[in-house]
Specification:
The complex is a heterodimer.
Chain A: H1 7-17, H2 60-64, E1 82-88, E2 94-100, H3 102-105, E3 110-114, E4 147-148, E5 154-160, H4 163-172, E6 174-179, E7 216-224, H5 227-232, E8 236-244, E9 247-248, E10 256-261, E11 267-271, H6 276-287, E12 294-297, H7 314-324, E13 328-331, H8 334-339, E14 343-344, E15 347-355, E16 361-373, H9 379-388, E17 399-408, H10 422-439, H11 444-451, E18 458-459, E19 473-474, H12 480-491, E20 504-514, E21 525-531, E22 537-541, H13 550-562, E23 569-572, H14 590-617, E24 624-627, E25 630-633, E26 639-641, H15 642-651, E27 660-665, E28 674-684, E29 690-700, H16 707-726, H17 743-746, E30 757-762, H18 784-796, H19 807-817
Parallel strand pairs in A: 1-13, 11-12, 16-17, 22-23, 29-30
Antiparallel strand pairs in A: 1-5, 2-4, 2-6, 3-5, 7-17, 8-15, 9-14, 10-11, 10-13, 15-16, 18-19, 20-28, 21-22, 21-27, 24-25, 25-26, 28-29
Helix pairs in contact in A: 9-10, 10-11, 10-18, 13-14, 14-15, 16-18
Chain B: E1 2-7, E2 10-15, H1 22-28, E3 47-50, E4 53-56, E5 69-71, H2 84-91, H3 101-114, H4 120-126, H5 138-153, H6 165-172
Helix pairs in contact in B: 2-5, 4-5
The chains are: A alpha+beta, B alpha+beta.
């Protein structure tokens, strides 16, 4: 496994080493505006039967009755189920010198105790990052660890008859350490005098730029044009610096896994994951079990937000179930969620631009320093998105440079989190652009309108890192102008009433946002659909509904194609034994990738439906259309119902066939959805206290397959974005012990902390997406930090450049102004 | 140890262990609608109604509910015949992953019994104990307002009112069995 070269690595290395000139990112000819779109992909609003309709969420009724089953709800299916507990490091950096399990072993009801030396614990390194193979992430984790690099590193594990016994046994395991100096500030991680966290020899699948002697997990650099020349010759050069903190996913359902050996002597996992197929492959490699002997089943999951785009607790649970020879459940605690699972990367970002007198952007430069924490899952790819998601908002800038370093500290592991680097990047880019506009004396919206992306543009910045899997993108749909216009009207940008109290100052800030729809050139979704006698269908997809409404969306796409009601599509997802392959739910890919595979599969089934209908109606298939549960001859008006076709195809006298369709979808395209975030704020210029009066978000997501569910994505995304903007992040002691280990300490916003929100869906048509759809899930996590910083700048003239934005920081900045 | 209490209108005698929270007890006996999100009383996913009051069952010691009347999400409607509060959450698309929703619905149900005609601020307050990560709370607040209207227009049926709880529990106790 270690010999497998990484495609991303090679291409990025090539780019880093190429000093000679422009990166090879393709010419416009390779990215034509024209797209060979099937005629049936574009439906006028009045012709839509299932898509773009507020279809009831597929799982809504079982959720509101409490019958929806999440992993922890399967306990009663396994009477001999053991409960797990994990002994975690309580120091930030050190070497385990002794593990005394004797007291725990003597306890009644303890079935298994594992330490790093146990036979069933794999000795090899792996990554938890749920990505394609081989992962663009170093393999730097071990299931149980003797060298500990953060508080929370798993050292030993227990399976016992109930959770109290497991917890008591875990507490009786005594661990001795030889402590090492920790690195608690990522800004000094690469200093020569900083202690070294990882031994390079123990890491496989290293990424470009890795320099473990200096605690660097990876680095990258890409350039278009010549930024130095452009900034040297410009009169308007602005350089700014931005900082963002840790953010917890606060995933409602803590990571939970059940592992067991089934009656076929195979390993069956029920687990709360966004990536069942990646997890199956990674478990197979790690435990040296054939893929065919592992089944990963995802029931309902209590959301993911990226924390479950990872194989975090599955290996420990599987090892325990092998050792205990019985089913084991490991349900993590909220405390573990905060300090031992995954978080958003803290970052420091430097922005520099050159702009003409008239406000045309001439150069953009971005440098990012990202703290990946003790280990590096998703480290390089998240940092890459910091630039490649927001900078393409301005794709016509001739000179662009983007570079990054990803460094280790002895702090919690940062990994994938909704937005995947784009929220940090947007804070830097969109706050910076606001300053550029103000420096020029221009209205911030006007400045953006002069420079922002439009339909027809060729976005080469998305490919600036020379990753040959991510091509330059032709922008075939862009509704930013309408997003700005409608958002501006909704928030009242042009008519801001100031409060009567002279100390209260109202301001409005805007930020443009972009994302992607899947990982360009690194996705695969597949679907299978089969007809029942009564004209209904069973649709199987590997795409994972994390709560977003995937199952509903795919039922709408399939029913639109087949002319039946969405409720006539039974959706099964996701079980690696049954569902077709899918990369999983991440990178805003599901509607665009999985949805397109469903559309193709349904079209394949439809072709067979029409063939049968033509036989029954004694006509030819090309005269037939579907709708309302019937197939109709458009010329004669004769029709036959899907139910009649279902029975005839299965029980007919002469011929019989099970009508089915199946398809895969992969693509090099990843069209960005766009949006405009507005924040209306009132700031007290004496105290720095501020109230957010309203959040307005206008989104161009192509055609919304299910408008209310899309709105829900936008509102929930803004909520996470609001928390990044104003939340407290994590606190640590001076030895690196996390102090933020509960919801109370973290202060996640409650219903009463949320300002009113207005959500606007702007329809465009993306020719490469199913029925014109693009993504929506991550886009709205990007806007509140910059838009709030800009609103405060608008209200009281000061700039907050580090998150969180607090009254104390505003007050301090106001005092400096005086 | 064993004690009696009324769950969803049914008198039950349940075994419990020292240190069990009400949530531990309920989930062990199959009332798995209440979810475990924090064990510190912060997230509200485990909310049930005890003697008319919404409580976080994860921080409610089992012994304190001896003889009490406990209502869980299972006491409300069925998938084919939803309770008005459940209907409101479905029809307002006020749910995503659903993990917090039983807590949302139980808090809403208790709050609307106290105050059947909430203002928007009061509706926001009604679900304050529940930390929803998915929705941004906008649609849930709309669902609370809508639920109030639905309950008002169905007052003839008195759904969700105290005296009808027993009737509803025949359905509500479905799936919940003795350990």
């Amino acid at each position: 496994m270690s010999e497998n070269p990484n495609k991303n690595s090679e291409s990025i290395t090539a780019q880093v080493e190429s000093e000679s000139g422009l990166p090879d990112i393709g010419t416009g000819d390779e990215n034509p505006m024209e797209w060979n779109e099937p005629a049936n992909n574009r439906k006028k609003p009045e012709d839509r039967e299932s898509i773009n309709r507020p279809v009831e969420k597929y799982d809504a009724r079982k959720i509101v009755t409490g019958e929806a089953k999440y992993t922890g709800d399967f306990r009663r299916q396994f009477p001999d189920l053991a409960e797990a507990a994990v002994v975690r490091s309580d120091i930030a950096h050190g070497q385990v010198t002794n593990i005394d399990t004797s007291a725990a072993e003597e306890m009644e009801g303890v079935y298994a105790i594992l330490t790093p030396d146990s036979d069933v614990v794999p000795d090899s390194v792996y990554t938890s990052a749920g990505q394609g193979y081989p992962e663009p992430t170093p393999w730097d984790l071990r299931v149980l660890r003797e060298k500990v690099r953060m508080v929370g590193d798993p050292i030993a594990a227990v399976a016992a008859t109930d959770s109290q016994t497991a917890d008591r046994a875990a507490r009786k395991i005594d661990v001795e350490y030889e402590e090492l100096d920790p690195i608690l500030d990522y800004r000094v991680a690469m200093d020569p005098e900083s202690p070294q966290i990882h031994d390079s020899d123990e890491i496989e699948n290293k990424q470009p730029g890795a320099n473990y002697e200096n605690n660097r997990q990876s680095s990258f650099e890409g350039e278009i044009g010549d930024v130095t020349e452009a900034t040297d010759s410009s009169e308007h050069v602005l350089e700014t610096e931005w900082e963002t903190p840790y953010q917890s996913h606060c995933v409602p359902e803590p990571h939970t896994t059940i592992a067991r050996r089934d009656e076929d002597n195979r390993y069956h996992l029920i687990t709360s994951t966004q990536v069942p197929y990646h997890t199956r492959r990674q478990l197979s490699h790690l435990f040296d079990i054939p893929i065919r002997d592992i089944r990963v089943e995802k029931p309902r999951i209590g959301a993911g937000f990226g924390s479950k785009q990872a194989m975090v607790i599955e290996p420990i649970t599987l090892a325990l179930s092998i050792a205990a020879d019985r089913p084991v459940i490991y349900e993590t605690t909220r405390k573990e969620q905060f300090y031992a699972i995954r978080s958003r990367h803290p970052m420091q970002i430097r922005m520099k631009t050159a702009v003409s007198d008239e406000g045309a952007l001439e150069a953009m430069e971005m440098d990012v320093l990202s703290n990946t924490g003790a280990y590096g899952p998703h480290g390089m790819t998240v940092a890459g998105n910091v630039g490649t998601k927001p900078l393409p908002l301005y794709p016509n800038v001739d000179n662009v440079r983007f570079a990054g370093d990803i460094v280790h500290t002895n702090l919690p592991i940062a990994a994938a989190q909704r937005g995947y680097g784009a929220p940090q990047g947007h804070f830097a880019v969109e706050s910076h652009m606001d300053e550029v506009a103000r420096d020029l004396g221009m209205d911030p919206i006007e400045f953006r309108q002069q420079n922002h992306v439009r339909e027809g543009d060729l976005d080469e910045i998305a490919a600036i890192l020379g990753d040959d899997e991510k091509h330059a993108r032709r922008i075939r749909s862009c509704g930013l102008d309408e997003c700005i216009q409608r958002g501006r009207e909704a928030v009242g940008y042009d008519d801001v009433d100031q409060p009567d109290d002279p100390n209260q100052n109202r301001g409005i800030g805007v930020a443009l946002v972009g994302q992607g729809s899947g990982v360009a050139g690194a996705e695969l979704g597949a679907a299978h659909i089969k007809m029942n006698e009564d004209g209904t269908f069973i649709l199987q997809v590997g795409g994972v509904d994390t709560g977003t409404g995937t199952d509903t969306m795919v039922s709408q796409i399939a029913s639109e194609v087949l002319g039946c009601a969405p409720g006539d599509i039974v959706v099964h997802s996701s079980d690696t034994d049954i569902s077709p392959f899918d990369y999983g739910a991440y990178a805003s890919s599901t509607t665009y990738i999985t949805g397109q595979s469903v559309k193709k599969a349904a079209e394949n089934a439809k072709e067979r439906v029409l063939t049968w209908a033509a036989g029954m109606l004694e006509t030819s298939p090309d005269r037939l259309s579907v709708g309302g549960g019937d197939v109709t001859d458009e010329q004669s008006g004769d029709h036959v119902s899907l139910e009649e076709i279902g029975y005839e195809s299965m029980y007919g006298e002469d011929e019989r066939e099970h009508i089915m369709g199946e398809a895969s979808h992969s693509t090099d395209e990843s069209p960005p959805p766009f949006g405009a975030q507005f924040v209306d704020v009132t700031v007290n210029d004496q105290t720095g206290e501020f109230d957010i009066n309203q959040l307005v978000f206008a989104a161009d997501l192509g055609v919304a397959i299910n408008p209310p569910l899309a709105e829900g994505q936008i509102e929930g995304g803004q909520s996470m974005s609001l928390e990044l903007a104003t939340g407290a992040g994590y606190e640590f002691t001076d030895t690196g012990v996390p102090k933020t280990i509960s919801y109370k300490q973290y202060g996640m916003p409650r219903s009463t902390d949320h300002p009113p929100m207005e959500t606007i869906l702007v329809e465009t048509h993306e020719p490469t997406g199913p029925f014109g759809a693009k993504s929506i899930a991550e886009l709205p996590t990007n806007g509140v930090p910059p838009a709030l910083s800009n609103a405060i700048r608008d209200a009281v003239g000061i700039r907050i450049s580090t998150l969180p934005i607090t009254a104390e920081k505003i007050s301090a900045a106001l005092n400096q102004l005086d | 140890m064993e004690m009696e209490l009324t769950i969803n209108g049914h008198k039950r005698s349940l075994k419990f262990a020292r240190g069990d929270s009400l949530l531990d007890l309920l989930r062990r006996y199959g009332y798995t609608g209440a979810k475990r999100g924090c064990d510190t009383g912060d997230c509200g996913y485990c909310t049930v109604i005890v003697d008319g009051e919404a409580v976080q069952s994860c921080v409610t010691p089992t012994k304190t509910v001896e003889g009490a009347r406990v209502e869980t999400i299972e006491s409300l409607g069925t998938q084919d015949d939803l309770h008005p509060v459940q209907e409101a959450f479905v029809d307002n698309s006020a749910l995503q992953c659903g993990f917090c929703i039983p807590g949302m619905i139980m808090n809403t149900t208790a709050a609307l019994r106290e105050n059947p005609d909430p203002s928007k601020v009061e509706a926001r307050k009604a679900i304050e104990p529940v930390l929803c990560r998915c929705t941004g709370h906008k649609k849930p607040v709309e669902a609370v307002m809508d639920a109030a209207e639905r309950l008002e227009s169905s007052t003839g049926l008195s759904r969700g009112s105290e005296e009808n709880i027993v009737e509803a529990t025949d359905i509500g106790s479905k799936g919940a069995t003795d350990e």
